[in-house]
What we know:
Elements: H1 2-11, E1 17-22, H2 29-34, E2 36-44, H3 57-62, E3 67-70, H4 73-76, H5 80-96, E4 103-108, H6 112-120, E5 127-131
Parallel strand pairs: 1-2, 2-3, 4-5
Amino acid sequence: MKLLWHTLLVATGGEGAAVVYDSVGKDTFETSLKCLRPRGLMVSFGNASGPVPPVDLLLLSQLGSLYLTRTGLATYIAKRSELEEAAAELFEMVTSGKVKIEINRSFPLKDAAQAHRELEARQTTGSTILIPD
């Protein structure tokens, strides 16, 4: 993680990132915060390495008046209209090319169990899809 942190600081001219999205959780939480520029935003949305321990709010101040949020999909699609609006916006971004979806692995539907084993063993990256037979 130190290499990532150093690389990010070099890439941003020492300023740090405006936003960091962290899906890993416990193992990357503090490094993700340290990658932010003053008043940067960290979005925590997963805990693959375990849940983040309780946060000392003073740390956010010490690292540059940082913002921290923990998102949950249910909050953003609580109303049917919000779900439809978000889906339409996403599909527009994908069809326009602004968001690219890379499919790195595909499995025939009959091999779904193998796909799950590889996902659980973290042998995949990016998107993995099942193709109907």
